[in-house]
């Protein structure tokens, strides 16, 4: 593992927002309102079996989707490839040829897989590593020395991997906070973003406060986001999210602790 960490950040006051879509019109709208990246999802292998009993989404996106989006937007396109296997090198090359600027690796089990992924990308795109297996969390300290650009804690798969009953258990038991502490000064994300007045069973504003407390650097827009925005002004709703994030980052220590207590009580009730 020879990729020395050079990817520190102090830019935690900007919450990078990623949106899963292959809809060119929605992608253009997202770019106009300040979304940071569009994700095209190629992950298939093992996903249906893994998530068969859970309310999750399996996409059927293609390289052609990346090419089509690259023609109409200038924000970076992220491609989520399959978990590391013998085809990973070819998938990375296809993603790069199609126009991907960020490549996302799911379901890494150990840091050596992350290191291999970084080697295959070889600086030609930014790297986004999903932390969503029990074993990778157990070896999280070894990720500190690797040169990935972003990481995202995948609560759904991590819940399954750790045999929890709810994604919220991973926040209640300190798992998410532990990852942030170990990977301090790196761009780490989690959670799903929706309308500032939305969120069920946890109100989104309360989750946003916890994201700010943990120095969350990126998040994804929830798959319900498009429906929840129906009939609403996307620009205004995104401005509300951005303003709430800034306000959350400017809270006093006392306010942060009070909001954390509110959040923990909410978790205990769900």
TrEMBL record:
What Gene3D superfamilies does its record include? Phosphoenolpyruvate-binding domains (3.20.20.60)
UniProt keyword list = Metal-binding
InterPro entries listed in its UniProt record: Aldolase/citrate-lyase_domain, Pyrv/PenolPyrv_kinase-like_dom, Pyrv_kinase-like_dom_sf
The Swiss-Prot or TrEMBL record annotates one GO molecular function as: metal ion binding
Q: Which residues form the HpcH/HpaI aldolase/citrate lyase domain?
A: 17-144
Q: In the UniProt record, does the keyword Ion transport occur?
A: no
Q: Which residues form a coiled coil?
A: none
What is the protein's given name? HpcH/HpaI aldolase/citrate lyase domain-containing protein
Q: Which organism was this protein described from?
A: Microcystis aeruginosa Ma_QC_C_20070703_M131
Its organism's taxonomic lineage begins at: Bacteria, Bacillati, Cyanobacteriota, Cyanophyceae, Oscillatoriophycideae
């Amino acid at each position: 593992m020879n990729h020395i960490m050079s990817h520190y950040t102090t830019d935690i006051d900007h919450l990078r927002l990623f949106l899963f879509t292959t809809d060119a019109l929605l992608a253009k709208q997202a770019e106009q309102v300040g979304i940071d990246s569009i994700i095209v999802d190629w992950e298939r292998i093992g996903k249906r079996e893994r998530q068969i009993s859970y309310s999750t989404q399996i996409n059927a996106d293609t390289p052609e989707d990346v090419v089509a989006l690259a023609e109409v937007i200038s924000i970076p396109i992220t491609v989520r490839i399959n978990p590391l296997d013998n085809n990973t090198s070819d998938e990375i090359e296809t993603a790069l040829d199609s126009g991907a600027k960020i490549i996302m690796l799911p379901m890494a089990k150990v840091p050596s897989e992350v290191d291999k992924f970084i080697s295959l990308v070889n600086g030609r795109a930014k790297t986004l590593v999903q932390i969503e297996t029990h074993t990778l969390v157990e070896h999280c300290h070894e990720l500190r020395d690797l040169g990935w650009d972003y990481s995202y804690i995948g609560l759904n798969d991590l819940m399954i991997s750790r045999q929890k009953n709810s994604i919220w258990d991973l926040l209640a038991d300190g798992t998410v906070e532990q990852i942030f502490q170990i990977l301090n000064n790196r761009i780490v994300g989690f959670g799903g973003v929706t309308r500032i007045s939305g969120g069920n069973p946890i109100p989104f504003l309360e989750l946003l406060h916890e994201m700010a407390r943990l120095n969350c650097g990126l998040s994804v827009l929830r798959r319900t986001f498009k429906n929840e925005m129906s009939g609403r002004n996307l620009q205004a709703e995104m401005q509300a999210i951005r303003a709430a994030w800034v306000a959350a980052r400017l809270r006093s220590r006392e306010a942060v602790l009070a909001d954390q207590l509110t959040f923990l009580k909410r978790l205990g009730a769900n």
